[in-house]
Amino acid sequence: xxxxxxxxxxxxxxxxxxxxxxxxxxxxxxxxxxxxxxxxxxxxxxxxxxxxxxxxxxxxxxxxxxxxxxxxxxxxxxxxxxxxxxxxxxxxxxxxxxxxxxxxxxxxxxxxxxxxxxxxxxxxxxxxxxxxxxxxxxxxxxxxxxxxxxxxxxxxxxxxxxxxxxxxxxxxxxxxxxxxxxxxxxxxxxxxxxxxxxxxxxxxxxxxxxxxxxxxxxxxxxxxxxxxxxxxxxxxxxxxxxxxxxxxxxxxxxxxxxxxxxxxxxxxxxxxxxxxxxxxxxxxxxxxxxxxxxxxxxxxxxxxxxxxxxxxxxxxxxxxxxxxxxxxxxxxxxxxxxxxxxxxxxxxxxxxxxxxxxxxxxxxxxxxxxxxxxxxxxxxxxxxxxxxxxxxxxxxxxxxxxxxxxxxxxxxxxxxxxxxxxxxxxxxxxxxxxxxxxxxxxxxxxxxxxxxxxxxxxxxxxxxxxxxxxxxxxxxxxxxxxxxxxxxxxxxxxxxxxxx
Length: 500
Ligand SMILES: Nc1nc2c(ncn2[C@@H]2O[C@H](COP(=O)(O)OP(=O)(O)OP(=O)(O)O)[C@@H](O)[C@H]2O)c(=O)[nH]1
Ligand SMILES: [Mg+2]
Hints:
alpha/beta; Rossmann fold; 3 domains; six-stranded mixed β-sheet; three-stranded mixed β-sheet; 46% helix; globular; binds guanosine-5'-triphosphate; binds magnesium ion; metal ion binding
């Protein structure tokens, strides 16, 4: 009978229920003991449930209290730089503790500046030196590290006559510099490995998705762009922010080699022929991300510790989506807890943005307006400004973002100004600009109107939008903008938060 009941009770036919059922010949005392034990177990289980419920509610409340911001824009638009400014201003002690961790990135940026120049020089160096009886570049003494080698078998000598800058003569001095600086190729590899080594998902962007050497006349893509999925892992940030900042930094091999080559790097960058060749080839190293050649003496010193401004200017490409939780220092009021999502901006990474659209209060859209004459690294047929405007159109017309506060930073105004002053004409690249004055204020106003026009024509819903002209490598000016932006976002957030 009992056996039949068990067999016919679907619940008790479950193997787990069968295994846990009370013994059939249980004595009253054993039964009493079992029931007491079960009661205690239930009490503990209920307590755990209560705690979980409380935690869920707390996290819901916290999530309501948190201000969530998504940084969007194409690659190299300045998203990570805005994040850095935000942390510098609102999480200063954490920021300070992390400064030293950026040394390797800045050293890598400087090494890449030098290697870019050496690459540009290679075809000219392959030619015999007309000012010297000594014709073979390999006949020079090796540099201080003795690992140098020069490819003297290049076969493109016949082509170089037609390249821009073919009138510039590089001499023995340049060959020697090239030879002495060639250990930097190993330093580059070493630093890349070191930065990538702590991130199992590190990726080298080489070719199909890297930033373009990018300036007018240069179609080649860089194999130098380097990105990591997480700064924290790659840079080895101190986990508790407690790293002592007055200890000297260890002098590793890269630092030692850079210190030894300091004078050569300065000679290369200050050399008139080299400058002329770069100009002729349209390679504006000084306008590129992560330009540190003007700071060579400081950056190559054995005791170099990065400054705030160095870190803000350092270039480290973002891969995927990085979430930053920032508790604003000196503020316990509403709006002191921020979550900022910093995303990778190149086309192949944009699909990863979507899941964050309905979770954020505000979007800061970075529009690098100095890029009117540049092409996308990932698709050289597309103008970078055009890509930015298309992205903006897609964002404003997205229904998912109907309630999201939109903030636009018309960024890189400093570079825009320099470009316009160097004589590059906006109307050559943007016909609709017409005969307006080729001046930064006029261009900014024109583009602001363009962004507003797109908003009017394509917005899924009318919404609050703020536009600012920025140069986010200028930390002082950006701090002031961020203050206004922060207050605006909090105001909007308060309006929408249910519990207010
Ligand atoms: N001169 C100047 N440089 C800027 C400005 N904004 C950003 N940069 C530089 O441009 C480079 C790219 O900026 P990032 O913030 O890394 O760009 P990103 O949008 O995060 O790029 P991805 O991570 O590839 O999506 C960095 O080296 C910055 O220092 C600016 O307003 N002026
Ligand atoms: Mg980035």
